[in-house]
Specification:
Elements (H helix, E strand, L loop, with lengths): L2 H32 L10 H36 L11 H16 L8 H5 L1 H31 L8 H39 L4 H6 L5 H8 L8 H33 L2 H12 L6 H22 L10 H11 L1 H14 L2 H9 L4 H29 L3 H6 L17 H8 L9 H35 L1
Length: about 475
C-alpha cells in the first residue's frame, strides 16, 4: 500500500472517529441533562470528537514516521538475504550503486538497469518493498483502531475532554517553538564549530584585519598567510548595503511615507501604498537582471562621459542603487506606521500654534516618530547586507578595497556562495572560510536586529 493511500485511509478513520465520538457524547449529555444532572457535563461534544480523533491519528502517525526510517533497512536486509544477492561485489561503493539502481527500478523511478546485476535484484526488491509496505500499513491501521477504541470507551458526560485536547494543543505549540529554537541553536553551533576549525588554520587577527583576500591561492598550495584578509569583503558589504543603498532608500522611503500619511488623499494612498510595498515581493534575481543589464551599463557610460577612466560594467554603485530601491518598502512601511501612530493631538496642536504643514512634519511628527523610523532603517540595513543575487550579477566578485563607486567590489554573502559552489573539501581553509564569514555576518545581523527591535519596542511603549 502506497504512502498517500494509507494517509488518506487514516484521515478517513480520523473523520469517522470524530463523528462517532461527537454523536456518542451528544447522546450521553442529552440523557444526563434529561435526568437533571447538568453539572455532570464537562466538555462540549466537539471536544470529545477531537479527543477520539487524535487518539486515532497520532499513534498511527508516529508509527509511520518511525517505520519510514526503519523499513528501508529491513528491505535491504531482506534483499541481501536473497540468493540473487550472493553475486554482488564486496566493494561497498559498487554494492550500494547496484542496490540503489535495483531499488529505483522496483519503485518505478527508473526504466531499465545499466548493470546486469541490478536487474536480477529488481524482483526481490519489489517483493520486499511490498511485504514491508503492507506490514507497515496493517500495523498503522491496528494502532489507529486500538487508539480510537481506547479513547471511545472514555467518552462520558463528566470526562474532561476539553482539558486533554487543549493540553495537546499547548504541547504542539511548545514543540513548534522548540523546533525553531533548536534549529537556531544548531545553525549557531555548526557555524561556531566550522569557524573554530578555520581559525585553527588561519590567525583570527589576519582574518579580521587583513586587506588581501585570495582564498584560491591558498587552495593552490601557496599557504594561508595573507590569503584570508576579509577587510575588503567587510568594506564591500558596508559600501553597497549600508552606504549606497541607504542613501537611496532612506530619503525615498521617508519622503514617500510623509507624502502618503500627510499629503495624499485616501484614494491615492489606497492605491500607492500597496503598489510601493509590492517592491518587497519582487524576486531579487529580477532586480539583479535589471541592475546588470540596464543600470550597470548606463552608469559605466556615464562615468566615461564625465571623464572617469577604468569604470567597470560591474560596479558597487549599480548594485547599491538597485538594492536601495529594493529595500524602500522596509523603510517606507515602518516610517508610515510610525508617523501614523503619532497622536493627532500633537499635529493639531502644532497647526493651531500657527505652524505650517511642512514645519509640523519637520519639528513635530518626524521627531516623535523617529524611534520607529530608526528601527525600520536598521531592519532595512540588515536586509541589505544579507543580499546576494544583486551583488553577484551587478557588483562582481573582485575583492577590492576602494572608495570608487564605479569599481567592481564584492560582499561577504557573495564570497560565501562562491566558496561553497561545486565540489568542496571541508578540511581546507578555503572552504571553511565561508563559515567564518557566515559567523561574522550572523553576529552583525543579529546585533542590528536586536537594536532595531529595542528601538521599535521603545516606540510602541511610548505611543500605544
Amino acid at each position: 500500500m502506497t504512502g498517500p493511500a494509507i494517509l488518506l485511509l487514516l484521515a478517513g478513520l480520523g473523520a469517522i472517529a470524530w463523528v462517532s465520538a461527537r454523536a456518542r457524547a451528544l447522546r450521553l449529555q442529552t440523557a444526563a441533562r434529561a435526568t437533571g444532572r447538568r453539572d455532570a457535563v464537562h466538555s462540549l461534544p466537539g471536544y470529545h470528537g477531537w479527543y477520539v480523533a487524535l487518539w486515532t491519528l497520532i499513534p498511527a502517525a508516529i508509527f509511520l514516521a518511525v517505520w519510514a526510517n526503519v523499513a528501508p533497512g529491513l528491505v535491504t536486509q531482506s534483499v541481501l538475504a536473497d540468493p540473487a544477492a550472493q553475486s554482488l561485489p564486496l566493494d561497498g561503493f559498487s554494492r550500494s550503486a547496484i542496490l540503489g539502481e535495483a531499488r529505483a527500478i522496483a519503485n518505478g523511478d527508473q526504466a531499465g538497469a545499466f548493470n546486469p546485476l541490478s536487474q536480477g535484484l529488481v524482483e526481490p526488491y519489489a517483493h520486499a518493498l511490498n511485504k514491508y509496505g503492507v506490514a507497515g500499513a496493517v500495523l498503522a491501521l491496528v494502532l489507529a483502531f486500538a487508539g480510537g477504541a481506547y479513547a471511545f470507551t472514555r467518552v462520558r458526560p463528566d470526562f474532561r475532554a476539553r482539558t486533554r485536547v487543549e493540553r495537546l494543543v499547548m504541547a504542539s505549540l511548545l514543540i513548534a517553538s522548540l523546533i525553531a529554537i533548536v534549529t537556531t541553536v544548531g545553525i549557531v553551533a555548526s557555524l561556531l564549530w566550522e569557524s573554530f576549525r578555520f581559525f585553527s588554520m588561519v590567525n583570527p587577527i589576519d582574518f579580521l584585519f587583513g586587506t588581501k583576500w585570495s582564498p584560491q591561492s591558498a587552495a593552490m598550495g601557496y599557504g594561508n598567510d595573507d590569503a584570508f584578509g576579509a577587510v575588503p569583503l567587510f568594506w564591500g558589504t558596508i559600501f553597497i548595503g549600508a552606504i549606497i543603498a541607504m542613501i537611496v532608500a532612506i530619503p525615498l522611503g521617508l519622503m514617500s511615507a510623509i507624502y502618503l500619511t500627510q499629503y495624499a488623499s485616501p484614494t491615492v494612498r489606497k492605491w500607492m501604498k500597496p503598489t510601493l510595498e509590492m517592491l518587497a515581493g519582487v524576486p531579487t534575481v529580477v532586480y539583479g537582471y535589471f541592475a546588470a543589464l540596464t543600470i550597470a551599463p548606463a552608469l559605466r557610460d556615464f562615468a566615461v562621459a564625465i571623464g572617469i577612466h577604468g569604470a567597470s560594467s560591474e560596479s558597487a554603485l549599480a548594485a547599491g542603487l538597485v538594492m536601495g530601491v529594493m529595500i524602500i518598502p522596509f523603510v517606507s512601511s515602518m516610517a508610515d506606521d510610525s508617523i501614523a501612530a503619532v497622536p493627532q493631538s500633537m499635529r493639531d496642536g502644532s497647526l493651531a500654534m500657527g505652524a505650517t504643514t511642512s514645519e509640523t512634519i519637520r519639528k513635530v511628527l518626524i521627531p516623535a516618530a523617529l524611534p520607529g523610523v530608526v528601527g525600520g532603517v536598521l531592519l532595512a540595513v540588515s536586509r541589505a547586507i544579507g543580499e546576494t543575487m544583486i551583488v553577484v550579477m551587478a557588483a562582481g566578485l573582485a575583492a577590492n578595497l576602494t572608495l570608487n563607486p564605479f569599481a567592481s567590489v564584492t560582499t561577504v554573502t557573495t564570497q560565501i556562495v562562491q566558496l561553497l559552489t561545486g565540489d568542496q573539501e571541508f578540511d581546507s581553509a578555503k572552504t571553511l572560510a565561508a563559515f567564518a564569514l557566515g559567523l561574522v555576518l550572523f553576529i552583525v545581523t543579529l546585533l542590528l536586529n536586536i537594536v532595531a527591535l529595542r528601538v521599535v519596542k521603545k516606540y510602541r511603549e511610548a505611543y500605544e
